[in-house]
């Protein structure tokens, strides 16, 4: 019974042996050095963000790697093509010289065989006359037999092997020139790529048939005209859209994927352009653009327009603008090749990158124009 009493006292907290501290409602029970649940979740969130940052860094690194690989493949493909072309030209040159030598030798041999034939004929005639008993005929034939047959002095005639000196050297020099030009093109593209800017399509300017992605990086033409407010900034007839960002100085560059499309327009436009009704693309009207039609027909919409052909259809087009220089250049990114340049332009207003995916032509041109992500690297 005595033990039971002591236990009861401890449970009630009234006994002298009770050592449990009193706990007030709302009092912090944390052990010093331990985080709260909120702090723990915050640390978890920070680490998740760090994971995303690392993954994004890996993606950017892969994009850099892919870009460098593509550039390297382009250089070595050009080098390989040049080597093969130079080798073929070298072989053709040597073979042509050999053919000329053989032709010359055949001509000499033909002449010699002709003379041999004439000499054999003369020899046969002399032999026949020597056996003839007709002295009168013999006497009559002597003058012609005494005349020398029409032969050539072959003492100094010879067939000399052609000289191939410098042939290989010229081929190697041509190869070096091709590689140098290819490297210059790559360096030029890298130079303008350092001015890459992040641009986003402006839905307030988009013609109602156009479909823009939620992130503002893609546009294609749909089959249904949307009911949108006809605000002053919006194109109402032509399938065009501008970006939100404007540029009034310096240099800027952006890239657009055009893969899978049969028609498109790309370039820049000044702020005061006409956006209503039918539009004529030209610098005079405030547009510096190029376009593709019918899968392989390219044109620069200059004053006057310039048609041009490309060795291969670009899958990604880069657009570079130097505001102060009055320059708008278009590049085939994968080929590191300049497509066309507007020069001597006079810019006095804000410029906006301009896009037109053109009508989808029953699905044949349904692929979107895609603005490439910007990756600034040191």
Give a summary of the structure in a few sentences.
This protein is of the alpha+beta class. Helix content is 38%, strand content 17%. A seven-stranded antiparallel β-sheet has the order 1-2-13-4-9-10-11, covered by helices on one side.
Task: Give the helix/strand layout.
Elements: H1 2-12, H2 37-131, H3 135-146, H4 167-193, E1 210-212, E2 218-221, E3 241-242, E4 251-257, E5 264-270, E6 287-293, E7 297-300, E8 306-308, E9 316-322, E10 327-332, E11 337-342, E12 351-356, E13 369-371
Antiparallel strand pairs: 1-2, 2-13, 3-12, 4-9, 4-13, 5-6, 5-12, 6-7, 7-8, 9-10, 10-11
Helix pairs in contact: 2-3, 2-4
Q: How does this model look, in words?
A:
The chain is α+β, with helices and mostly antiparallel strands. The protein is built from four helices and 13 strands. It has helices at residues 2-12, 37-131, 135-146, 167-193; strands at 210-212, 218-221, 241-242, 251-257, 264-270, 287-293, 297-300, 306-308, 316-322, 327-332, 337-342, 351-356, 369-371. Helix 2 (37-131) packs antiparallel against helix 3. It is elongated, with a radius of gyration of 43 Å.
């Amino acid at each position: 019974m005595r033990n039971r009493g002591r236990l009861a006292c401890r449970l009630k907290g009234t006994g002298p042996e009770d050592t449990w501290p009193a706990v007030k409602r709302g009092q912090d029970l944390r052990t010093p050095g331990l985080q709260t649940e909120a702090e723990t979740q915050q640390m978890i969130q920070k680490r998740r963000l760090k994971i995303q940052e690392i993954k994004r860094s890996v993606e950017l690194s892969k994009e850099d790697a892919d870009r460098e690989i593509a550039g390297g493949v382009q250089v070595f493909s050009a080098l390989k093509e040049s080597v093969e072309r130079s080798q073929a030209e070298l072989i053709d040159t040597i073979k042509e010289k050999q053919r000329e030598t053989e032709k010359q030798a055949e001509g000499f041999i033909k002449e010699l065989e002709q003379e041999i034939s004439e000499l054999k004929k003369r020899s046969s005639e002399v032999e026949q006359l020597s056996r003839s008993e007709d002295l009168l005929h013999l006497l009559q034939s002597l003058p012609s037999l005494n005349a020398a047959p029409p032969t050539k002095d072959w003492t100094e005639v010879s067939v000399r092997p052609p000289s191939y000196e410098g042939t290989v050297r010229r081929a190697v020099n041509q190869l070096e020139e091709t590689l140098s030009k290819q490297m210059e093109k790559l360096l030029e593209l890298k130079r303008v790529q350092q001015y890459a800017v992040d641009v986003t399509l402006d839905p307030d300017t988009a013609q109602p048939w156009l479909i823009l992605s939620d992130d503002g990086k893609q546009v294609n033409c749909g089959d249904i005209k949307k009911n949108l407010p006809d605000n002053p900034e919006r194109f109402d007839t032509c399938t065009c859209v501008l970006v939100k960002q404007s540029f009034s100085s310096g240099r800027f560059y952006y890239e657009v994927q055009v893969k899978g499309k049969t028609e498109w327009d790309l370039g820049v436009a000044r702020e005061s352009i006409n956006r209503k009704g039918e539009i004529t693309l030209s610098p005079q009207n405030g547009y510096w653009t190029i376009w593709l039609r019918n899968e392989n027909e390219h044109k620069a919409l200059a004053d006057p327009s310039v048609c041009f052909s490309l060795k291969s259809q670009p899958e990604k087009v880069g657009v570079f603008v130097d505001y102060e220089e009055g320059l708008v250049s278009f590049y085939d990114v994968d080929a590191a090749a300049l497509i066309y340049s507007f020069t001597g332009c006079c810019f006095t207003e804000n410029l906006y990158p301009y896009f037109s995916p053109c009508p989808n032509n029953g699905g044949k041109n349904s692929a979107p124009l895609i603005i490439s992500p910007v990756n600034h690297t040191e």
